[in-house]
Here is the input.
Amino acid sequence: MSPNQKRTPNSRQRIGKRQTDLLASLCNALSVSGDEQEVREIVLREVKPICQSVKVDALGNVLATRIGSGADRVRVMIAAHMDEVGFMLTQDEGDGLYGFSIVGGIDERQLVGKPVIVGREHIPGVIGAKAIHLTTPDERKTALKVEQLRIDLGPGGAGLANVGDRAGFATRYTEIGPSIRAKALDNRLGVVNLIELLRSAPENIDLLAAFTVQEEVGLRGARTAAYHFNPQIGIAVDSTPANDLPAYDEDDENTRYNTRLDHGPAIYLMDGATIADRRLAEWLMTSAEAEGIPYQIRQPNPGGTDAGAIHKTRAGVPSISVSVPQRYCHTAAGLIRKSDWENTLRLLGAALSRLDSKILTPLEA
Amino acid sequence: MTKTQSKITRDSALLALIQKLTETPGPSGQESLIRAAVLEEIKDHADEIRTDALGSLIARVGSKQDGGMRVMISAHIDEIGLMVTHVDANGFARFIAIGGVSPLTCIGGRVLFMNGARGVIGCERLEPNAMPTLDKLFIDTGALSKADCPVSVGDVCGFERPFLDLGAHLVAKSMDDRVAAAIAIQALRALKKTPHEVYFVFSVQEEVGLRGATTAAYGVNPDIGLAVDVTRTGDTPRGIKMEVALDKGPAIKVRDSSFIADPRVVNWMASSAEAAGIPYQLEVLEAGGTDGRAIQLAHAGVPAGCLSIPCRYIHSPSEMVSYTDVENAVRLLVRLLSEEIRLEYSPESAF
Here is the structure.
C-alpha cells in the first residue's frame, strides 16, 4: 500500500459534466486512422496545461509526460488510441458521388443507408441505397459489397471533397439515461480516461501518456510511442465489444459474450495480440477488490489493443489492457453504460496509486 | 529390448532430460515451471543467467575472443495449450486455443491446468461427417455444477500425455520445442571452449507469434543467431510433400514461411556438418515459422538460421522425433559454437 494513496483518492473519481462534455466533443470529432488531427487538437488543448512535457512524434502520436515526485517511481506508459474506423474516398465519379474504401474493421453489411460526414469540414453525405420499391426479392438476400456503394454528397456536390479525404458515420453523441450512444466510443473513452488520469496522476509514478494514431490499422502508432518512452510497464486503455444480448433460444446459454454491460471494467488476460502479464492482472484485480470496484475478465478472444505493440518493444515491456465494455463496437452507433466508464476510471486511478515497482520483481525462475 | 532399440546406444541422461522437459507443463504465457526446470539444468554451467521482462531465460557461456562473435541460440520453452473462456451452468468449460491447436487432436484428449486441475475434452453432437471446430468443444473437469468447477475464465491448461520411448523414436506432447531446449541444454553443458560469447535463450511465447525471441534478440543484440526448433517431415503415409525425414540427421533450414535463412549461415552450418561427418538434411518448410525470424529482424538486422529437428505429428499430443537426429543435433550445435564462424556466400563443399 503506497503512502500516496491518501493524497490521490482516485477510486472516488466520478463522471461529471466536464467528462461527458469532453467525451461528446471527442466522439463528434472525425479522426479516421491516418488523419487524427481533429482529436489531436482537443487532446493537446487538454493536456498542455497539466503535463511537464508534451510532444507530437513523427507519426502523429501525442506523447505527454507527467513526472511524479516519489523516490522509487515506476515508469508507466498508458496508451489510448485517437483514431477510429471509417472510410477513405477513393474515386471522384462526379456530381457528388464518391467511391470509397473501409479504413480498419467495419462489417460492410452495416454500411447501406448510413448518414456520413466527410473531411475536416464534416460535409454531410449518405451511403446511398436503392429504394425497396425498386429492389427484387433476390437482391434483398445479398449484402452489398463496398465496391457497389457510393458516398453521395448530393447533386452539385462535385468538388466538395477530394480523393483521400476521410469519412465517418454522422452519429452525434447522445445520453440515454444511464447509457451513452455515440460513434467512435472506441476509443474516445480511452482518450478521455487518459486525460483524466493525467489530471490526477499519483506521485509514485511517472505517467507516460501516449495518445496514439493508427491503432485500427495495426497498432502502428503505439509501436513508435513505446519505443520513445521505453517504459517499465505498459497499459492500453480501450473499449471492447459487449455481445451480451440474451440468446434467442432459452435453452442456449450465451457463452460468447466477450464482455457484459454493467459488469465493470474489462481486464484482459489474452487477446490475439497479447498475453497479459499475470502480475499486472493480479495487481488490477487486487486493487479493484480492495477499493470495492466491480470488474470483469474479458473473455480470452481474438482482437488486439496497443498492448500488442507495447509489450514487444525493445527488450520487452510487461503489459496489459483495460477496456470499457461497449455494445455495437465498430458500427455507426455504440452503446455504453456510464457506470462502466466511471468504474474503469476509478479502477485505473486506484491501481496506479497502489503501484509499486516490487510487483515486477518476482519473475525469476 | 525390441529389434530397433538394440541397434543404437543411447544416453539415458539425455532421455531423462527430454522426458523431464516434455512432461513439464508450460503453455505460452505460463512458462514459470518449465523455466525453473531449465534453470535447474543449466545453473552450474553458465557464466551468467537472467530472465528478461517477458520471461525468457537467457544464459551466457564464454566471452568474445579474437575472431569471436556474439551468438544467440534460441529454443522456445512454451507449448501450445488452451485458455478457458466460459464455464457454463453445468460446469463445462469452453476454451480458446493458445497457439496452433487443431480440433481434430483435441477430442478425447486430456488436459492439465496450471492450478493442478485435470479434465477431458468433449464435443457437441455434430452433423454426420461435419468437421469439429474449437467452439464446439469443451473441457469436462468432472465438475458436478458451475460452483464445483475447479477452473474459471482465464485459467490455462496444456495437453497431458506421458513421454513414450519407442527406441529409435521418442514421442511426447511437447517435443515442439522441448526437444530443442534439451539440445540447447546439452550443448551449453558440453561447450568447454569457445571463441564466442554465446547466449542460450530459452524463449517464451513463440507459439503465439515469436514474441519472447523478439524482445530477447533486442536485449542480446547478437552478431549472428540460430533458432533450434522442430520441423515437419514428408515421411508418413500420404503425408505432405517434403524432403525431410526422420533418422536422416538434423535439418538445416533454408526457409520457412516466416523467414529466409541467411545463405551464409546455411553454408556455414552445412560445411561444418560435412567436415565433422555429421549427417544433415536441407529443409524447405512451406508453412511454419520460428524464432529465426525474430532474430533476423532485430535491431539493424542479424544473419540468422535455424537448426531443425525433424518431427512427425507436430502440434498433436504425440510428437515424434528420432533419437539419433537429436544426438546429431547436439554434436552439430557444439561444433558450430566451438569454432570460428566463417560467413561466405559460396561454399567450396556444401552443395
Notes: Chain B has a mean pLDDT of 95.
